[in-house]
Amino acid sequence: MRPTEKSRIQLFVSQKVRELRDLNGLTQEQFAERIKRSREFFANRENPNTGMAFNLDMINTIAKEFKISPKYFMPDEGL
């Protein structure tokens, strides 16, 4: 894996974050405001062509803000 590629689990998490954002009808900017980050922060992590990924602390922050379990962002089985 090159530094600018995400692993399969990182891609999965990015897709789940985007899914959550879409389900709530939020733009990247609106989503970022709720989490107190920049739009670019989320754009880079949602983009499958960058190596930037969500870490566990950010997943937890998002889960708390949207009142869901951090498990929402994890697959049922290993990838």
Report a brief summary of the structure:
The chain is an all-alpha fold and 79 residues long. 53% of the residues lie in helices and 0% in strands.
Question: Would you kindly provide a written description of the structure presented here, covering whatever features stand out?
Answer:
- The longest helix has 16 residues.
- Helix content is 53%, strand content 0%.
- The chain is mostly helical.
- It starts with 7 loop residues before the first helix and ends in a 14-residue tail after the last helix.
Low-confidence stretches: none
Judged by helices, strands and strand pairing, the structural class is: mainly alpha
Residue fraction in strands: under 5%
Shape descriptor reads globular
The quaternary state of the protein chains shown equals single chain
Give a quick account of the main beta sheet: strands, pairing sense, barrel closure: none
Distance between the termini: 15 Å
Count of strand segments:
0
Helix content: 40-55%
Report the C-alpha radius of gyration, rounded. Answer: 12 Å
The count of helical stretches stands at 4
- Mean pLDDT, nearest integer? 93
Order of helices and strands: HHHH
Features:
79 residues; mainly alpha; 4 helices; globular
Ordered list of secondary-structure elements with their pairings:
Elements: H1 8-23, H2 28-35, H3 39-46, H4 56-65
Helix pairs in contact: 2-3
